[in-house]
């Protein structure tokens, strides 16, 4: 996978994330199609190429902090592990703004904690890591209660997949949506 070169002093929006296998992305696309078909709300669906799980958001950082982060993330010694899609949900049933899918796997939380620990004097630790993949952003919703009930009744197949790497990424925001690029890939042990 192509890595992004950073060679100026401007601040860059960065985060640490997991990418998803194509089979899992296809499953999420099918869920998005089901939701679109019912026309529950107006808003934006996450583009398939942008589906990921954020392990830690670093914010707007300069090249020096990026270099330090890369050096520390390379020191993480962690085994590859299995994960699977979980329930579809929203953060707030009162004000529905984000639709997400949980990513299940005990080791996800352990990896996130290790990332937090390795970056602890550079960034604040995560207050509450929620292992979720954003699949849509809601502007207006027609029938909130019906939509929430619809999501509750959608169960994912027990598709298990392997996580064998994580990424340091950049995020550039544009009106048509964000563009993510990999700065560095960090392989997990087999």
How would you describe this structure in keywords?
alpha+beta, Cyclic Phosphodiesterase, Chain: A, 190 residues, 27% helix
Descriptive account of the structure:
This protein is an alpha+beta fold and 190 residues long. The protein has a single domain, classed as Cyclic Phosphodiesterase, Chain: A, CATH 3.90.1140.10. The protein has four helices and nine strands; from the N terminus they run βαββαββαβαβββ. The protein has helices at 22-38, 63-74, 106-118, 144-153; strands at residues 12-19, 41-45, 52-61, 81-90, 98-104, 132-141, 160-163, 165-172, 179-187. The strands form two sheets. It has a five-stranded antiparallel β-sheet with strand order 2-6-5-4-7, with helices on both faces. The protein has a four-stranded antiparallel β-sheet with strand order 3-1-8-9, covered by helices on one side. A hairpin with a 6-residue loop joins strand 8 and strand 9 (179-187). The longest helix has 17 residues, at 22-38. It starts with 11 loop residues before the first strand and ends with a strand.
Reconstruct the topology from this structure.
Elements: E1 12-19, H1 22-38, E2 41-45, E3 52-61, H2 63-74, E4 81-90, E5 98-104, H3 106-118, E6 132-141, H4 144-153, E7 160-163, E8 165-172, E9 179-187
CATH architecture: Alpha-Beta Complex
What value does the Rg take, in angstroms?
A: 17 Å
Distance between the termini: 19 Å
Whole-number tally of structural domains: 1
Helix amount, in percent? 25-40%
Q: What fold name goes in the CATH topology slot?
A: Cyclic Phosphodiesterase, Chain: A
């Amino acid at each position: 996978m192509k890595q992004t070169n950073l060679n100026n002093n401007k601040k860059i929006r960065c985060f640490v994330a997991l990418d998803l296998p194509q089979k899992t992305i296809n499953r999420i696309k099918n869920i998005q199609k089901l939701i679109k078909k019912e026309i529950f709300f107006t808003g934006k669906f996450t583009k398939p190429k942008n589906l990921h799980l954020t392990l830690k958001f670093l914010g707007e950082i300069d090249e020096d902090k990026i270099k330090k982060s890369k050096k520390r993330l390379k020191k993480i010694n962690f085994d590859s592990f299995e994960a699977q899609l979980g329930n579809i949900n929203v953060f707030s049933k009162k004000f529905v703004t984000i639709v997400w899918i949980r990513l299940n796997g005990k080791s996800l939380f352990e990896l996130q904690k290790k990332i937090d620990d390795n970056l602890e004097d550079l960034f604040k630790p995560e207050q509450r890591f929620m292992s979720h993949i954003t699949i849509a952003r809601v502007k207006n919703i027609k029938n909130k209660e019906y939509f929430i009930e619809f999501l509750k009744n959608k169960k994912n197949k027990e598709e298990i997949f392997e996580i064998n790497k994580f990424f340091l990424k950049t995020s550039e925001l544009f009106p048509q949506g964000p563009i993510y690029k990999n700065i560095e890939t960090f392989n997990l042990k087999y």
